[in-house]
């Protein structure tokens, strides 16, 4: 099915055979991504694995995720953590239900998803203090802005004016996420200088001579938190 939105031409592929033809046989030719104007905020589009084009940096980021986050060995290593997070989530919900209290499942599910991801990346929980409140608010609002229909995406000639203000609204959210990531990187560097042992998490792997610069890793982590935590939370809820 061919769809034209503004000046942008989309082709919707719903048949299994056609999808296989595109995703497997011609993936290298069709791996480009449509530009999402809101993700240009604070230059995030240059560091986003979700939106950036399939260049050398994108391939390096994808390889990092494939080997250090989604590989069978890594998933098996994180199995006990995931079980612990699920047990804590179920226990929390059971306690509230036993008291006959009404509450939003979304909140504890969000915390469980966020801590699972933060443990894999930073080996710490981000479930307390002002940082997690900022991160929760950032993820929720950024998800809404990223998914909102934006006239700038369909008429690139007027994108510089940001007529709906989505890029302007996204800018402080990206800045908040990058600041939180910066804090974690600095803490890890200080720990290394103090002689603390390696944690062998995703952050440790990246800091060992990777060609991926610091902005790229902050962009990757921002993508993972915005895309991963919110979708996981919604699925659980």
TrEMBL record:
One of its GO terms (molecular function) is iron ion binding. It comes from the Eukaryota. Transmembrane segments: none annotated. InterPro entries: Cyt_P450, Cyt_P450_E_grp-I, Cyt_P450_sf. Belongs to the cytochrome P450 family. This is Cytochrome P450. It comes from Eragrostis curvula.
């Amino acid at each position: 099915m061919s769809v034209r939105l503004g000046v942008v031409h989309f082709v919707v592929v719903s048949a299994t055979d056609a999808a296989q033809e595109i995703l497997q046989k011609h993936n290298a030719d069709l791996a480009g991504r449509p530009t999402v104007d809101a993700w240009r905020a604070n230059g995030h589009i240059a560091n986003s694995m979700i939106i950036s084009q399939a260049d050398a940096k994108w391939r390096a980021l994808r390889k990092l995720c494939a080997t250090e986050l989604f590989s069978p060995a890594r998933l098996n290593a994180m199995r006990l953590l995931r079980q612990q997070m699920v047990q804590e989530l179920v226990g929390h919900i059971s306690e509230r239900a036993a008291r006959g209290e009404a509450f939003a499942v979304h909140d504890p599910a969000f915390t469980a998803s966020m801590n699972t991801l933060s443990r894999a990346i930073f080996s710490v929980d981000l479930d307390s203090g002002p940082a997690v409140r900022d991160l929760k608010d950032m993820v929720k609002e950024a998800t809404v802005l990223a998914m909102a229909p934006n006239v700038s995406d369909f008429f690139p000639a007027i994108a510089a004016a940001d007529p709906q203000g989505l890029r302007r609204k996204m800018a402080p959210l990206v800045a908040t996420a990058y600041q939180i990531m910066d804090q974690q990187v600095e803490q890890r560097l200080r720990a290394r200088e103090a002689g603390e042992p390696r944690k062998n998490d995703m952050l440790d792997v990246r800091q060992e001579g990777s060609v991926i610069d610091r902005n790229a890793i902050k962009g990757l982590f921002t993508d993972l938190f915005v895309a991963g935590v919110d979708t996981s939370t919604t699925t659980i809820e």
